[in-house]
Amino acid sequence: MSAPQDNKPDELAGTEQPFVQHLMELRDRMIKAILAIGLMAAALAVYPGPSTLYDLLAAPLVATLPAGATLIATNVISPFVVPIKILFMAAFLLALPVVLYQVWAFVAPGLYSHEKRLVLPLVISSTLLFFIGVAFCYYFVFGQVFAFIQSFAPKSITAAPDIEAYLDFVIGMFLAFGLAFEVPVAVILLVRMGIFSTTQLRQWRGYFWVIAAVATALVTPPDAGSMLMLLGVVGALYEIGIVAAQLFVKHTKTAEPADPAQEPVDPVAPGDAPKS
Length: 276
What we know:
mainly alpha; flat; about 75% helix
């Protein structure tokens, strides 16, 4: 009667040890990712510096302000805190490939070979698409949005936006356009996981446009130009995602590996003779 009780500590130790090892590996991966961000932040602090980074981020707005107008700081510590925030935001973006590699290295051992072929291209493409969305917002959208807003300002009002409010606005716009450019990746995942088919996505194209129109109206400023621009981009990316899903899934969807070392084998039912 005492034998099963004596085996319990060994069984618990056998289950706890792999869990602790996973936690330690996760800790190590997180430390490496944080170190990469810290190194990028230190490099950016030396050159070009937090103030220059903020001037670069504020350039699209400053270009549309009246002559002599500048941004203001309504909080005492804002001139110090806001550039530091921008420094770490830029450092995170530059270190994003390292961060994503650490995530990939942590989950890759638990994936099948065909799943690895699926995940790695999606990670790379989603990162590039996010950067493209941020660049599109900075170089093409900001100029039109700020010019539209300034055109409605009465002559008796001198525009002097607050730097913290501007930073919040920029981060929100970057996230909106960066995530909007992830539509092809989302479409590919939905098709690859079998949730929807490309035929269904084509049939439901009208519903997608309605949802996209509502979403773009909520995340963009009260500017018809920027809303239509984002809506057109999202719609085009949706169509690109459908075509890419057909090609991508065709080349990555393979049969489950039959190697016992890679995939668990179903137990043989009692009475079933093993095949020779």
